[in-house]
Amino acid sequence: MKDEKKTKKIQKNKLPKAKKQFYYDLLMKARNEFMTQVKFHADEALTSQKDSAGERAGMATHMADLGSDNSRHDLELGLMSSEVDVVEMIEEALQRIHDDEYGICLDCGDLIAEARLAAKPYARYCTRCKEKRESMEDPGRRSR
Predict the structure, then answer these.
(1) Domains and CATH numbers, the chain
(2) Which contacts (CB < 8 Å, 24+ apart) does range 122-126 have?
(3) Is the four-CA dihedral 28, 29, 34, 37 of positive or negative sign?
């Protein structure tokens, strides 16, 4: 009966001050880059289209043009949404640094490899758990 009531213990990962600063700087750099991209895609998706002379273009005069405009708008919104998701993961990673939980896989509790964190500082899972998750999910809905 005692085993059934086990709760997942949150591990701590007390990083040395220099490593903590290194990952913090990586995360802030990534956050700034993604926020720049979010702003770019928001501007592209939400501003009025302009013609070649820089004037506001009116309604598309041909159905194909309208379809292209709508397709581009949807693409920009999709890209913006994906990048907002990454910004949220970065914010979570910053909080985990503050809470001394950074670099710990959210699934298995093992440490995430430093090479993975250097490449993707907002990684939530070790490579083994990430591969397991990807094998179980719909290929069209894969997260970063």
Answers:
(1) 12-104 (1.20.120.910)
(2) 122/27, 122/30, 122/86, 122/89, 122/90, 122/92, 122/93, 123/93, 124/89, 124/92, 124/93
(3) positive
Q: Burial level of 132, CB count in 10 A (0-12/13-18/19+)?
A: middle
d(CA 124, CA 122): 6
Q: How far apart are CA 1 and CA 16, in angstroms?
A: 40
In tens, the pLDDT along 100-131 reads: 999 999 999 999 999 999 999 999 999 999 99
Tens digit of each residue's pLDDT (9 = 90 or more) over 56-85: 455 556 566 566 666 777 777 777 778 889
Q: Which two tokens stand for residue 89?
A: 């993961």
Rounded to an integer, what distance in angstroms lies between the CA atom of residue 62 and that of residue 71?
14
Kindly report the pTM of this predicted structure.
Answer: 0.69
Token digits for 141?
Answer: 């809905």
56 forms beta bridges with 50
